[in-house]
Model the fold of this input.
Amino acid sequence: MVGFPVSADWSQLSDRFYRKMQLYEMSWQNMDLAKYHLVAAPFGGPLALWRDERKLVQADTLSLRPTLAIYTSAGRLLSSTIWERERLVGCGWTDNDRLVCVVDDGTLVFYSLHAELTGTFSLGRDVRDSGVRDCRIWGSGLVVLTDDLQLLAVTNFAEPRPIRLHPPGLTAPPKTWAVLEPSQTQSLSVEVLLATDPSGTSGQPGTIVLVTEVTVQDQLVPHGPFSKMAVAPGGRLVACFNDGGKLCVYSADFVQLLSEFDTKSRLAPAQMEWCGADTILLYWPAAGTGVLLMVGPFNEWIKYTYDDSALIYLVPEVDGARIISNRLCEFVQRVPDMVESVFKTGSTTPPATLYDALDEFERKSPKADELMRELRATPAMLAAAVSGCLQAAADQPADPAVQRTLLKAASFGMLFQEFAEPSAFVSTCRTVRLLNDVSEFDVGIGMTHAQYQQCGVRRLLERLVEMHEHLRAYRIADSLGLRRDRILLHWACAKVRRAAPDSDPSDQVVARLTACGEPAGISYAEIAATAYRAGRKDIATRLLEYEPRAAEQVPLLLSMGAAHEPVALAKALESGDADLVYLVILQLQRSRPPAEFVRLIRSRPAALDLLISYCRQQDVKLLKSLYADLDQPQERANLIVFDAYRQSLELEAKIAALEQALAIYSETKDSFDAKATEEQIKLLLVQSEIDSSLGPNPSGQSGQRINWIGLPLGDTLFHLIQIGQAKKAAKLKADFKVPETRFYWLKINALAGIRDWASLERLAKDKKPPIGFAPFADVCLQAGEAREAAKYIPRISELEERGSYWIQARNFVEAVETAKLIKELDKRVSLLSAIRSKATDKELQQQVDALLQASGAS
Amino acid sequence: VVVTMSGATNLIDCSVDIGSLREHSKDAFLRLVDSVPGQRKALAVDPSLLTALGLVVEVQSIREHGVEKIFALGAPRLDTDCTHIIYVLRQDVALTRLIVEHIRQHVQEDRRKEYLACFVPRRSVLCERILEEEGVYGYVSVAGFDLGLVPLDCDLVSLEIDVFRECYLEGDYAQLEHVAHSLATLQHMFGPFNSLQAKGSLSKMVLDLFQKTVDAAPAADRPAPQIGGVILIDRDVDLVTPMCTPLTYEALIAEFFGMQTSHVQLDAEMVPGASKPPSAAPEGAAPSPPPPAQPAKVKTILNSNDDLYKDICDRNFSSVPPLLNAKAHEINATLQERHHAQSVSEIKQFVAKIKPLQTDRRSLEIHTNISSKLTVFCKSEAFNQRLEAEQYLLAGTEARNDYIEDCLIKKVSLVKTLRLLALRSLVKNGLKPKFYQSFARELLQSHGYEHLLTLHALERVGLWKQKRSKNKYPLLRKQLNLIDPKSDDANPSDISFVFSGYAPLSVRLVQAAFQPGWRRLEELLNTLPGPTVLPLPERPQQSAAQQQQQSALQSAAAQGLTTLLYFVGGVTSAEIAALRFVCKQKGKGFHFLIATTKVVTGDELITSLMQPE
Done:
């Protein structure tokens, strides 16, 4: 078994135990952290170091050109780059392990773990003009404090957009400040806490001011002024160190003061960070012995001393804190519950009992049996013992001997379980192995199980591939049954990016990817894009051929220059995706002279259709010239006509447009279009003439002014008749060869509309109407003028029809008379029946009945 | 505000679990809403999406996700205190410009908000280019949301997009990708299809696109298949049917009242309990009050949630009034029971019936009101003349067809006139030059010369042309048995009841696909316009016995799998009624799922082609 008790180096704070473990002995040589700034990525992530310009430098020990270096948590140098921009204000790590650097001029610069520049973003002109004073960075965003004491936030690095926060109204720089990430606040938007400085001109007492995008609010905190602040993991608590040497812990809304601890040091600590959810670390460097004070929730404390006179850095983690010193990487945490449960001196909890039982069993002591009997008293106790040992194994990082014993104890316990469920055991073994694997010195990701749970396997795998540990990542993904395509893709991208100038790794890449059997999920376009960005157009072109999805190919082809655009067009069309085709078309339109553009599109009918559709909505001018080029006169003329109507042009402009269309229509074989357009022009001219000659002539019906221009021919005639311009109407009718039938119909409707019954009668008498007399009767009946209708009904030649009109006019006597004239029996009967059903007069009814009987119907 | 979802179909009795399709779209939409932080969000929705969206997500859920106000996107200003605005719109240039307008105003007035422009069904290069060129791209986040197929009823899903005009008239096939995508979604959710058939140029394109998407997708574990065969049909394979006047109850409602996404606008007095019309006008719309002369309208949803409607919607209207009478008697009889109720238990029984009875009564009252209006329409002389003219054309009888001329002379509504003209052109494969010229002249003189463009549009789509080649319609009429002179509308034995004598061609094609004889079907399809995609039978046919072999489509249907019928370019209510009838005839275990780009009427098709818009 283990040589000395696991709990030997634990320290106690009231009823809780804390431990400080050594994770790594740093592999860097002659490091003096005092000369550097250091930021570390969470979850055992890498460290970024850059020189502190405010500290004096001995010219012989350091290069004068400032560098930015990235190390693993074990102090192995991953990469470094020379900083050639303006003053570096601060750095931080994003959720995907990019180092984001904030430059004095408001530029954000992103680097990969290999110090490759992956992007830059500017916060805008205002920031550039004023300069950046300070910044606070979290995994997905940051807040900068400008030199003119304004705040700007970016809340999403993936789609960065600077958001100006409410002006905080400071007159002097804050003594210190902190940020609540959007995910930690109730409003889900970023909140900034500023500790104001009473020594400034404002004269207010030192308090804390909350700034959001829309408000600024004094939190009226009485114990100020504060010189250090730290937000707890999760954002529920804020620790503040005041000038009086007191450490106060508030709820994040500053409503509650949860604890107050007097450090008896008026000097503010150089660093103050949370260690897990309930403990705070304060660090005072000093020339002989530096002091690290750990303060627990009930104001108990532990003091560690660091005597090698060099600076240390505190890195908060979800369940503790890393301590980076020149020599070591250590980890302080509260001892995890199950570890405590097993190893606390004198513990008799089920896991501890099981652990002891195994020990006794291995020493062949009969006490093992006794202990197991105790545990087997209830199945729940045994189950708790097994799961406790498993959990403890997971929570004992990088300690294979203890892990092995704990796992053994768990499996020993499972032997006694009636229904042992092996999945928890298997998954714990897997996780432990995985964590041990990545914590090895050459990888240097020393993370605890709790951190692993928070960070997730996906992010861990991402970090591994970012560190170019592709094979390791691939094997882990393989063993956990996770997707490996992202890993392969990253490998391929790294491969082409780092290809020697005279080598072409594309065959190797394709062969390897195919061998791994996941070509479906692999985006060759992305690999090609990487090659292209690395200046390897040749590799990019070759790899792009392997990409099955046009949506991926096209944008890259477009970005590769004008020579690739025709291929892009072909690929886009092949995909059938209209949006892609538009993407190419719009680019072509920008990059080529008009004639060449049209020539290119013309050769592709499908693209042409889309271009036409686009033009119809947005660029009629281009469409007109297109039709001219395409020799489609009818379409071109149609478009001109369409445009003339849509724009509701002035009369003259409209006529001019129509004449233009007419000229084009006339070139085509189909003469109908030309004729119709000619008539329209003629009609417009006539209407304009009517309009000016008649002046504001009230219409017969409503007294409103008639807007002649643009009316259909039929309506024009109708209104002319109504206002008594019969001559003009007749001339128009002749000019436009309006058929007699329709003209009559227009006339009678127009006359009935103004109830000009005399004119109607004249019209009927004038000559035999070509539409018969029924329509005359119709309009009269519709107007409720049965007496007028009676003038025309007798002249309806068909007897049946005449009869039914009499019925409609409710003149049943005449209807009966008409019926009598009908020779066909069935028709007579049907008319009579109709009369019978409508007539109310008794006498008449009898007469009809008699007639019906006479006709042989009952 | 968005129409309440209380009326959205409850999707009981679905052969395919399209409820999960709705959940899928709903979750996607709410995720989108959640992606915008804050509790003070406003939603501005493309009016053409409002109803369909309302069928997928309830207003209540949208509100629960922090949306304070819902606007119909359309007004040039959008004034709200909300801090975030989510725009949901189709890839529409005009509406995108409206967003630009809003943002500019807000910026100018220093009331800038956070904006999310969400394009349906996905992000759009063209619209984003507008945002970029107008200089507001920096203010807006852009996203895509695929509303997908909206369930209108248990056996009916629709994309509610206007493919007809865009594809046939403008040659803009951008939307077909969306159609193919919806097919892929169905496959993804309801298992792999085992046979694919298509007729028509658009259907073929959709099929090609669909097959491309299948190739690229990773082979995920697929669900057990619920859909077997798939038949895609273009609207232009059968343009005759939508031009005819349908006679089923639902189709007539669509004809006379207009129906959009299962909703119909009725006069308030026709709907009991709607005397005080709810403010149906979306907030933020033009502030002018509605003109008082117009009677208040109530938007009412009609679908199978209403048992009575479910029973009558697909019947020939002539048999509906008697059914309504019978129902009225039945309800009255039940109500009478209360007088006979003696014991407490009897009274209890009666009380239990009251609630459903009240719903029934309300539904009965609505349908009685609708049907009495329809009766007036159907009895009008114009309607009957029109029907007669159509029947003559369909049957190929030369007799009376001067009704068209009557229409022109009397200036009957342009849409109706064009519809009849189109029918005539279709069944005669074009008009003789003499008629063609004179009809066109008359039309332009009566309705305005600008409709020269409308005629060009109709011509391009194939609804209007000069006779140039042999007419195939009589052959089809005979082969497919399109005219059934013995149609019994009240107790139908054939689908011809939906047009009182004419069996819709499109549905006959579907029926033919389920009949034995592959060769016959192929010949038949080849006489119709557009390419045909028909899976070859597995072995070359040598003997008559093998000719009786079932196709993959038929065997899938025989196994109880649902057949998906996808009408690209639109489907009419009459066709849906006929298909439901076919389904019923085939017996238990036989199911159709009808999918379409839009449920349309002939009037809507013609109107969408009218120029200038």
Observations:
- The two ends of chain A are 120 Å apart (CA to CA).
- The CA atoms of residues 100 and 688 of chain A lie 72 Å apart.
- The longest helix of chain A spans residues 671-694.
- Chain A touches chain B through 54 residues (CB under 8 Å).
